[in-house]
Amino acid sequence: MPDAADADFYALESLLEPGGRELLLRVREFMEKSVQPVINRYWTREEFPHELLPEMAGLGIAGLSYQGYGCPGGGSLLDGMVAMEVARVDASMATFLGVHAGLAMGSIYLCGSEEQKQRWLPPMARMEKIGAFGLTEPDVGSGAARGLTTTARRDGDEWVLDGQKKWIGNATFADYVIIWARDLGDGQVKGFVVEKGTPGFTPTKMRDKIALRVVQNAHISLDGVRVPESSRLQGADSFRDTAAVLRLTRAGVAWQAVGCARGAYEQALAYAGQRSQFGRPIAGFQLVQDLLVRMLANITASACLCARLAQLQQDGAAEDHHSALAKAFCTVRMRETVGYARELLGGNGILLENQVGRFVADAEAIYSYEGTREINTLIVGRAITGASAFV
Ligand code: FAD
Q1: Is the distance from the beta carbon of residue 179 to the nearest atom of ligand 1 less than 6 Å?
Q2: Of ligand 1's atoms, which has the minimum distance to the CA of residue 378?
Q3: How far apart are CA 231 and CA 388, in angstroms?
């Protein structure tokens, strides 16, 4: 791998405490030594590297932005930079972590009762139990706030869940899947923790994706799934609470986008120094340098934006539109950057072995999940104009 410090152009890592920087280096070492050499094979076969989980768990990176409940803590900036560092080598592993530690643990951390947080978060922080987050449905994606069709019916001390979910990351093997469903009683969206193996809960692996092929996305059928009232997230009373989780995780996706772009850029920079045409390294051609500097500018601007957002998060001042702007901006810049990197490698850019093609493909999913560019743009547009333009 090229020297990672090169792409931290404005030295954002220096904003971390010494302990944070050490953790970042441990994550970098894990990703470069244990993940990088094998990940293309998993990507090709659409498989998840379960055997790497114990080493990843040992890093203590699940729950960096949460306080207590066995979580490592460390703050929003460190959490974001770790997401970036993981994505810098592999966007699928970053997505796995984002779903587990962000969406699933975040739902429990933000919406669970004290007892629920004590019950579920410590084993998830240790990554002994893995989480998933089921919001999207086959016919309801961007319009989830109003359109969820999965239902929850109260029956004594239990709830009965019925419906379909689509795209649910980690769900083929997750121990806890947060299912968001509409309460038939009051019409509001509520969150339920469904444990692996619950009767009527059937996840089916989605195949033939062209992006994030290592991530195990599932189609889920919920057929009369019974969960106790104690498994309903006690602090989730409406979609407003679901949105609070997304506010947190969209910032993480913006960091993932920086990592994905940075990984492609670093590979392209190294390639430019090694590849010769017309008798000299292509790094010496003006037009190649133009591509490299455009990439670096995209990465630097995006990373600076994310770092400031992390400060707002840390201060409790981040609002939906702050995360939405970062997610939309950074994913657009990522998509442009990975395209430039591929261009710089010429034909070799489409070969997996040259380490750029996977970023190009994976960027397509990051661009669309957790709110497409359009939806995040509409969130910002509503905030700055006061006019909602969703429908
Ligand atoms: P649609 O909502 O059908 O949108 C199609 C197009 O219409 C988009 O371009 C969109 O921007 C546009 N559009 C929609 N509404 C408007 C509007 N009002 N104005 C302008 N344009 C509009 N979901 C989960 O719940 N859990 C997961 O773990 C998860 N993981 C995922 C992993 C991957 C790899 C992918 C691809 C998706 C994942 N998702 C997950 C789902 C993801 O969040 C949705 O794909 C996303 O929200 C968009 O929904 P959709 O794909 O149904 O697109």
Answers
A1: no
A2: 19
A3: 34
Cα–chain center distance at 251: 9
Cα 182 to ligand 1 centroid, rounded to whole Å: 19
| Nearest CA owner, ligand 1 atom 4 | 142
Contact 127, 63 (CB under 8 A): no
Q: Taking the model in full, what pTM does it have?
A: 0.98
CB 43 within 8 A of CB 214: yes
Tens digit of each residue's pLDDT (9 = 90 or more) over 84-97: 999 999 999 999 99
Could you report the per-residue pLDDT of 2-45, keeping only the tens digit for each? 455 579 999 999 999 999 999 999 999 999 999 999 999 999 99
Distances from the Cα of 206 to the Cα of 210, 219, 304, 368, angstroms:
11, 6, 35, 17
Q: How confident is the model at residue 326 (pLDDT cuts 50, 70, 90)?
A: very high
238 lines ligand 1 (CB under 6 A): no
The rounded Å distance from CA 307 to ligand 1 centre is: 26
